[in-house]
């Protein structure tokens, strides 16, 4: 038997130990590598599962509603969800760019129209551009106000929407799309016969004005319902706006019922409508100068009292106070002012505050830091007012602008919640008769209430006026096709609620 010396054993051990260390190190590296690969594989599978879930979730749950509710407090008497149209496979006919004009609610309605046009013509829609050059000069982009990811995903079975044009169609690469405003109040035949052929020559068309470019009436039922799906489902506000709007609603509801008063007595409205009733001479001149400063405002010389007598002016805060009292609102009711800065400030709100002390605004309910993110972004601030107005116990607009109309339509969808549509032409007559002593308070109150019995947001057929689309009822104020199906419409509206065709 071979006997090794202690020195030989020591030398051999010194050779073996490094080899064992190398083996251990390799083993550890191998284990580390396996763990890294496994983690990557698991995360990849998770991402794929989420993508598949987002793709098929709307279809899986279509039988349970398939219709996202507004994330604000709503009444339990909601109408049945609008059915989702079947998924479509179609050949893309081109790309549609749109630049919306106007304030938040004008742009909102226009977006609904443009999605419908894109679907009708089998076009790919680029996420709309919002107006940054209007009086409000709001720099907000689409995804600063609306949840763009939800907008695209919720409409994926109906129209393809992309965030930006492919590079080959970019202006940076010298491509010039056809720019044009479509004709106002047009039906589907106009777009099929006059707009669609243009895409054979121009692969991209840019609509540089989008307000009221689709008719109120005479549109196929599937397109009317699509306008509603975009409005009520796809156009969700961003999570930040939704969260703060919901907080405002909760704070108000905890204190009891509240009225949302859309007091449109703001500088831009007064200047461009020429309404100066109740203003000082200096204020009237300031408003006139503002109107003349905008070259696109065609009508310069306006006689304020004539405009007012025709019902074309917003009520003043003092007039609004009298009308609310005549309608029976108690002194202790909460009134949320859903508007921007009132022209004349607190001085002009004195009479309204005296009649209804519980007047609140956004900045009175929230901490300064909570609104800081939204300052100087009028559309984002308007979105907060929209959420509150849609959720209020009663909504009272003092002017029938886009905000008033679109909120009215939302409240109809949310169960015909009370919206008092003021008949300003009649009210001006009654106010003047009361001020000059012809009508006593009791007579004035009775006349105001009687003239508004049918103007409380109850079910009613949308009014159609042949060849006068500007004068007929606005689709988004009363989207009746989305509030019932063909079997229940007659029961819902009833023969007495039809205004007929004029």
TrEMBL record:
A single GO BP term for this record reads: fucose metabolic process
Pfam families from the UniProt entry: O-FucT
GO CC terms, sorted = chloroplast; membrane
UniProt-recorded Gene Ontology molecular function terms: glycosyltransferase activity
- TM helices/strands, residue ranges: 32-53
Per its UniProt record, what CDD domains does this chain match?
O-FucT_plant (cd11299)
| Gene3D superfamilies tied to this protein | 3.40.50.11350
In the UniProt record, the signal sequence range is: none
Q: Which UniProt keywords apply?
A: Carbohydrate metabolism, Fucose metabolism, Glycoprotein, Glycosyltransferase, Membrane, Signal-anchor, Transferase, Transmembrane, Transmembrane helix
Write out the pathway annotation from the protein's UniProt entry. Answer: Glycan metabolism
Q: How does the record say this protein sits in the membrane? A: Single-pass type II membrane protein
Subcellular localization(s) per the UniProt record: Membrane
InterPro entries recorded for this chain? FucosylTrfase_pln, GDP-Fuc_O-FucTrfase
Similarity section: Belongs to the glycosyltransferase GT106 family.
Give the protein name, as stated in the record.
O-fucosyltransferase family protein
The organism is Anisodus acutangulus
């Amino acid at each position: 038997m071979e006997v090794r010396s202690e020195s030989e054993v020591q030398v051999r051990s010194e050779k073996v130990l490094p080899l064992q260390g190398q083996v251990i190190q390799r083993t550890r590296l191998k284990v580390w590598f396996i763990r890294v690969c496994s983690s990557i594989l698991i995360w990849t599978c998770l991402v794929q599962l989420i993508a598949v879930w987002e793709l098929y979730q709307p279809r899986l749950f279509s039988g349970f509603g398939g219709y996202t509710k507004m994330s604000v407090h709503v009444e339990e008497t909601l109408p049945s969800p609008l059915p989702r149209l079947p998924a479509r496979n179609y050949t893309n006919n081109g790309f549609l760019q749109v630049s919306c004009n106007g304030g938040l609610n004008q742009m909102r309605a226009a977006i609904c129209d443009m999605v419908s046009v894109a679907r009708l013509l089998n076009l790919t829609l680029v996420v709309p551009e919002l107006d940054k050059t209007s009086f409000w000069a709001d720099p907000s982009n689409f995804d600063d106000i609306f949840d763009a990811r939800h907008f695209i995903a919720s409409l994926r079975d109906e129209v393809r929407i992309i965030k930006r044009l492919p590079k080959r169609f970019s202006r940076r690469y010298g491509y010039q799309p056809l720019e044009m405003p479509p004709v106002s109040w047009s039906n589907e035949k106009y777009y099929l016969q006059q707009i669609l052929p243009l895409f054979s020559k121009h692969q991209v068309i840019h609509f540089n004005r989008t307000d009221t470019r689709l008719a109120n009436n005479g549109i196929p039922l599937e397109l009317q319902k699509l306008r509603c799906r975009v409005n009520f489902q796809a156009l969700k506000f961003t999570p930040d706006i939704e969260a703060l709007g919901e907080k405002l609603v909760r704070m108000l509801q905890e204190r009891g019922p509240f009225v949302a008063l859309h007091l449109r007595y703001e500088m831009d409205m007064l200047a461009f409508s020429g309404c100066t009733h109740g203003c000082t001479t200096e204020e009237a001149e300031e408003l006139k100068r503002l109107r003349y400063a905008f070259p696109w405002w065609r009508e310069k010389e306006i006689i304020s009292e004539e405009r007012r007598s025709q019902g074309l002016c917003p009520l003043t805060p003092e007039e609004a106070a009298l009308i609310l009292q005549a309608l029976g609102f108690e002194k202790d009711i909460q009134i949320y002012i859903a508007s921007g800065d009132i022209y004349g400030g607190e001085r002009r709100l004195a009479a309204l505050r005296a009649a209804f002390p519980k007047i609140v605004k956004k900045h009175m309910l929230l901490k300064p830091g909570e609104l800081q993110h939204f300052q100087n972004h009028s559309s984002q601030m308007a979105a907060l007012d929209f959420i509150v107005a849609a959720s209020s116990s009663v909504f009272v607009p003092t002017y029938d602008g886009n905000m008033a109309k679109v909120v009215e339509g939302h409240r109809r969808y949310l169960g015909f919640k009370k919206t008092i549509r003021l008949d300003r032409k009649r009210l001006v007559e009654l106010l003047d008769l009361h001020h000059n002593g012809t009508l006593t308070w009791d007579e004035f109150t009775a006349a105001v209430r009687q003239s508004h019995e049918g103007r409380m947001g109850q079910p009613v057929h949308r009014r159609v006026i042949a060849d006068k689309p500007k004068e007929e009822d606005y689709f988004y104020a009363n989207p009746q096709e989305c509030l019932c199906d063909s079997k229940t419409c007659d029961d819902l509206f009833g023969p007495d609620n039809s205004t007929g065709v004029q």
